[in-house]
């Protein structure tokens, strides 16, 4: 039996189109300059992180028909950025968020397989679906898919993409004994996939990737989302940064994975977290409060509540009470392009009012209190202890970390916290694997020849 302590998985995300990034900070860098992406990725690799994660926005968000003036505008193409980062990193995994609603399996399979080859086996795909017709206006398919249909299309997109990846086996390219030339076997790349969403066949152009298939990431909280992730994902983003909810989610996903015929270790649970460090705990807490006030300005607080109330709240004082009027779910959406995560507008509004009353908070303070994402705040030693305690308590298998200050914020974590994690034996001192799957401890998928798509 191994005596090595459970290892901590670390991912780095680059903050983008949301209020968590202090993009107006005088020390903040560009959100679209390649140097920003390069610095974040190189810093993460210097800290022996497992992967770099890139979110994506497919539409410029709007409020009442106008582009958010407090948002970052724009996001370069994911594949272009990740392919560029493959050239300036050697070990770091490269994870991109790509939508299944508006993309076809063939192009998805080809793009990710190409990235996996270019990076030497470091590609990962965060599988997401589209949530509204507003985003769909940018695409030929357009329109809106109901939640059940979104998951149906997502699952079939993933199955078709995997069929394409598996149309090449490791031994499909072999040397000709007579000439010494490398030749493909006659049926290499042949595929056929028939389903309710896709009816495709042909030959896939990219040989099997260095890690068999790119790593699959997914996020799902609903029963349908959890079932999809447990059956298909190699890692899932957890929305829970605090125990015991995180441990309950951890156990549920692992149990679902086993029920789907997988090993519990085949899927990793990773919540996102920000961090604020100080020489003392008091200093860290003071810095964190300053960061919160910078992130949630009065205007931002009103916009966040407008998504719940679906009303124009610009006439309310952010330093005054939470609105006592009810939400209006039947009105046209005032906020467009932001995923709605509140299942019940009325219950959410009532909870905000109750919290504000109980804690004697203003509208802005109530938003800061309720939108807090479980940041890691304290001295470097305290933050390292919290990470180890959380992971070893099966709240997660690691964290995806980001800073409010782009791209320089991650440097402080790498310089001050990473050495402590390495001293505790929970984070590698050097990379030992050659692929992202190696570093995550996720097995290479086996191709089921009996279920092969070749005909």
TrEMBL record:
Keyword Flavoprotein: yes
Alphabetical list of Pfam families matching this protein: Bac_luciferase (PF00296)
Chain positions recorded as FMN binding sites: 97, 151, 222
GO molecular function (one): oxidoreductase activity, acting on paired donors, with incorporation or reduction of molecular oxygen
Keyword Oxidoreductase: yes
UniProt keyword list: Flavoprotein, FMN, Monooxygenase, Oxidoreductase
Top-level class of the enzyme under EC nomenclature: oxidoreductase
EC number, UniProt record: 1.14.-.-
Boundaries of every Luciferase-like domain copy: 30-392
Family: Belongs to the NtaA/SnaA/DszA monooxygenase family.
Name the UniProt record assigns to this protein: Putative monooxygenase MoxC
Gene that specifies this protein: moxC
